[in-house]
Specification:
With 478 residues, the chain is mainly alpha-helical. The protein has helices at residues 2-28, 32-54, 60-78, 83-100, 104-111, 115-120, 122-133, 137-162, 168-185, 220-234, 242-259, 262-281, 296-317, 320-324, 337-350, 353-358, 383-410, 412-415, 423-431, 449-465. It has two domains: 17-54; 58-473, no CATH class. α10 packs antiparallel against α11 (242-259) and α10 (220-234) packs antiparallel against α19 (423-431). It holds the Pfam family Wzy_C.
């Protein structure tokens, strides 16, 4: 009876949220058709939040940590012209990490063993050195702040996993709540052909992709990437119910379609392919967490599900038009990425020795302002190129070392003997490789959603291998 009562309350809550979205749209639009679309979008947003609430094993500290990272990422778009708001949120994150990260030196020493630490922190340290060598006080101070926040995040994660906390479920729960909020904010335009982007924001004329709403928005690639990251964490883990694993996979496909994101599509392709490989590999060696679907037919169906979702995305999005369509008026199929990368390399060649070794020193975040870019401060949209821009040659070396270390930890079940990594972490580590040329979310910072998930997963994995975790908190799947 209690279960039925809870179900009724959940259903009522979903309907109330959906009606609120429909009423809001009806108030600003004359058509009942638009209100009906908003009702469906509002219901979807509420169901995504319900999905987050049903996830087992959510640690509130992981939930808060994930909320800080996704919150600062969204704030970077919403408050693009108000950096104090973004810094205030980052400051609150720093306070919590100060509390969680003690003893700092011990935790940071442990953090050096993590590949994710080298990916997301090393370039900030190198950037500080470069700014000091050119005597730029302003850039040095800002980079010290960024490096401090990143280092505190590492110390906090290491300290928390030592106490037995698996932060990753809470992190993806925060991602789901963020997705729910963005879907609700954009409920009036989610199912429209033309999507709303506030005037004056970057991408204001880029209305063929879903960004969220007028007051809460996020870059489409990052938005879809969140959903795919959730699918990678939840989908191949038997800790979660079958319906939850199926739901996150379907959600990932829908968000890829709504945002028209090729970056997230590639990540989902990599995840689906690795899932199929793992199901085949488990015949030779068990992989922790990977569900056992029993007979061959069910296993083949499970392996095919991500590809069916991907096929639907291609069909609904127009097939080759989705893959090869030019997203902007210029820049080609890569949306200007190649032009940005060429510009970064050309500037690096012409830069003084200090910049060659330690990265660009003109701005704190080493953003790119290339000719013909309409004065925009662009990211590199590539973790590999970003490591060169932000950390110079030494940054590239540190990045490659971190990536190799991350893969070494994730692929223990293939390349060496010893306790294998959970299926989801191995999948996430390998799937991150093709995104090196598409997004810079492995470098941490305000867009480092993938980075914080990998950091928390890798830290928990190494702590478990060292038998540091209390037995009562260690999963049976380990």
């Amino acid at each position: 009876m209690m279960g039925r009562i809870r179900h009724w309350w959940v259903a009522a809550g979903v309907v109330v949220v959906a009606l609120g979205a429909a009423a809001t749209e009806l108030a600003v639009d004359d058509g009942f058709g638009s209100a009906l679309k908003a009702f469906v979008a509002g219901a979807l947003a509420a169901l995504v939040a319900v999905l987050a609430l049903t996830l087992p094993g959510v640690d509130w500290r992981g939930l808060l940590l994930g909320a800080f990272f996704i919150g600062s990422g969204v704030a970077a778009w919403v408050f693009m012209d108000e950096p104090l708001v973004i810094w205030a949120l980052i400051g609150v994150q720093g306070v919590f990490c100060l509390i969680w990260g003690w003893p700092y030196l011990s935790n940071l020493r442990e953090g050096v063993r993590l590949g994710a630490t080298w990916l997301g922190v090393a370039y900030w340290v190198l950037g500080v050195i470069g700014a000091l060598l050119v005597f730029d006080v302003g850039v040095t101070a800002q980079r010290v702040a960024y490096a401090g926040i990143a280092g505190l995040a590492v110390a906090a994660v290491v300290g928390l996993v030592r106490s037995g906390a698996d932060l990753t479920v809470g992190i993806v729960a925060a991602f789901l709540f963020a997705l729910a909020a963005l879907l609700l904010s954009g409920s009036g335009n989610l199912f429209e052909t033309v999507h709303t982007v506030p005037p004056g924001k970057w991408g204001a004329s880029f209305e063929g992709r879903f960004w969220g709403g007028e007051y809460l928005l996020y870059h489409p690639n990052a938005l879809a990437g969140l959903a795919v990251m959730v699918a990678i964490r939840v989908g191949p883990d038997k800790l979660f119910a079958a319906w939850q694993r199926l739901a996150v996979t379907a959600l990932a496909g829908f968000m890829v379609y709504a945002t028209n994101s090729r970056t997230a599509f590639v990540l989902l392709v990599a995840g689906g392919g690795l899932h199929a490989v793992m199901l085949w590999w488990r015949r030779r060696r068990d992989i922790p967490g990977l569900p056992d679907y029993g007979d061959t037919r069910r296993t083949l169906v499970a392996a095919a599900v991500p590809f069916l979702v991907l096929a639907l995305v291609l069909i609904v999005s127009g097939g080759q038009g989705f893959i090869f369509k030019e997203r902007y008026g210029s820049g080609g199929v890569t949306s200007g990425r190649v032009d940005t990368w060429k510009f970064v390399v050309d500037e690096w060649k012409a830069a003084p020795v200090t910049d060659k070794l330690f990265g660009d020193t003109k701005t704190a975040r080493a953003v790119v302002e290339r000719p013909g870019g309409e004065g925009l401060l662009l990211p590199t949209d590539s973790s590999a190129v970003g490591s060169l821009r932000r950390g110079g040659v030494l940054g590239v070396v540190a990045f490659l070392f971190g990536l190799a270390l991350l893969l070494w930890h994730g692929l223990a079940w293939v390349i060496r003997r010893g306790p294998p990594a959970p299926a989801w972490f191995a999948m996430a580590a390998i799937a991150s490789v093709p995104t090196l040329a598409l997004n810079d979310w492995l470098l941490g910072g305000t867009g480092g959603t993938f980075w914080i998930l990998l950091l928390a997963g890798e830290a928990y994995l190494l702590a478990r291998r060292q038998a540091v975790l209390p037995k009562s908190r260690t999963r049976a799947a380990a």
